[in-house]
């Protein structure tokens, strides 16, 4: 994050584009958010209250992307669409 001069949000999207199954726990997110805040004075990821635990807001974008992909797969199923999501 620091060496590449990337935000926490950008780093998450970069890693998830390579390995889609990552899902760091809320403790890890808290530490990384605090670290980003110490280094840059701001944070690019926010924790949202969940039913049992907090979730990072970047998970919402990931969920939307998966939902959109599934909609495309359904719409164009006759093309035998393949994905590694």
Automatic annotation (TrEMBL):
Stored InterPro entries: Dual_spec_Phospatases, Prot-tyrosine_phosphatase-like
UniProt keyword annotations, A-Z: Hydrolase, Protein phosphatase
Domain of life: Eukaryota
Assigned GO CC terms: cytoplasm
One term of GO molecular function: phosphoprotein phosphatase activity
Family to which the UniProt record says this protein belongs: Belongs to the protein-tyrosine phosphatase family. Non-receptor class dual specificity subfamily.
Protein name: Uncharacterized protein
Organism whose genome encodes this protein: Acrobeloides nanus
